[in-house]
Amino acid sequence: MDSFIYLDYQATTPCDQRVLEAMLPYFTQSFGNPHSDHELGQQAHHAVEQARAQVAELLGVMVSEIIFTSGATEANNVAIQGAVKYLLKQGNTARRVITVCTEHKTVLEIVHSLAEWGIEIVVLPVNHEGLIDLERFKEALKTPTLLVSIMAANNETGVLHPVEKLAQIAHEYGALFHCDMVQAVGKISSPSFQHIDLASLSGHKIYAPKGVGALYISRKPRVRLSPLFYGGYQERGIRSGTLAVPLIVGLGAACQILQQERHTENLRLGYYKRQLLEGLRKAIPMIKVNGSLVHSLPQCINLCFPGVQALDLFKKTPHLYLSTGSACTVSSFVPSYVLIAMGKSTEEAFQSFRLSFGRMTMQTEIQQVIDALSCAYEDIMAGR
């Protein structure tokens, strides 16, 4: 394969070699079912519980508040549908669920599916920076609300929502608060979970394998969920099925590495982001940042290149592995709904794309990216 520069860490990360090494014994040696009583089963069980503790430590929550899933999509479904289903069964008279228009498609589609249960769906708008208005949020909560679901960090722009404040407000109005933390875990300081009832995370965004994730479920105050499918009593009866021990071990190892290294890693990646933006602004003064720079992840930026289609830039720079937005919607050639919701025109959305760095990004690559994109932009503008 020719040399390339990977700039799509928001879509997925490579599995860290240390994570892989931690996983390997649980494929061929300690391969027992973690629910079996014999020694091999108990080896697997202890590995799962160690991983649960590693996830909990990274988040700063209790070990008993973590259950494992196949990824964030399942975690979001279990959290949102499970909470609403349980509250309805308990006779709760509220019939409203609130989310935000720039949420990941997973959350938006789950929330909209609740209309089949007679739930009123409220989707809040955002401003040009991708942030919601707190007064409008409070106004929406004045109608009795079952649950609010708002992400910590946007997957396309890296914009950060003040989830601690939002969760506190939701509690003041008697609503549960779910947070999709997929893009935020390990990349920002863990928020206080005092008012966050449910939170989802995914392994493959933090250098663990694909196919594993976790869901935080508050125990104080205790949040109860109805299971979405039935079978055994694994994971507190909320998520039945034999656990994928090697993947869970990998998730735990990834969380432990983040716990130890995230501070220095985030400082380094934040420096890369500033270096990239300064270099591109010098070469292309017309370039624009989509979303808040102040309230954003350290290693992600979404840029608009006026006058040039993003896909044309991609064709000129095939060695740069880039993405226009969410990997879950890239197959449909439509403008980013996130950017449109932020007030960008269709033309501006097609001129925009995301760049994201990660653990394997080298500083020397940043100048190469600046040079490649600025040269490609100049060529296209000149008709070459």
TrEMBL record:
The cross-references to InterPro entries, in alphabetical order and at most eight, read: Aminotrans_V_dom (IPR000192), Aminotrans_V_PyrdxlP_BS (IPR020578), Cysteine_dSase (IPR016454), PyrdxlP-dep_Trfase (IPR015424), PyrdxlP-dep_Trfase_major (IPR015421), PyrdxlP-dep_Trfase_small (IPR015422)
* Enzyme Commission number, as recorded: 2.8.1.7
Any Pfam family? Aminotran_5
Concerning SUPFAM superfamilies, the annotation shows: PLP-dependent transferases (SSF53383)
Q: Which UniProt keywords apply?
A: Iron, Iron-sulfur, Metal-binding, Pyridoxal phosphate, Transferase
Q: Which domain of life is it from?
A: Bacteria
List the cofactors. Answer: pyridoxal 5'-phosphate
RNA-binding is among the record's keywords: no
Report the catalytic activity.
Answer: (sulfur carrier)-H + L-cysteine = (sulfur carrier)-SH + L-alanine
According to the entry, every stretch annotated as the Aminotransferase class V domain falls at: 5-369
The answer to whether keyword Thylakoid applies is: no
So what does this one do? Catalyzes the removal of elemental sulfur atoms from cysteine to produce alanine. Seems to participate in the biosynthesis of the nitrogenase metalloclusters by providing the inorganic sulfur required for the Fe-S core formation.
Q: Which family does it belong to?
A: Belongs to the class-V pyridoxal-phosphate-dependent aminotransferase family. NifS/IscS subfamily.
* Name of this chain's protein: Cysteine desulfurase
| Protein source organism | Commensalibacter nepenthis
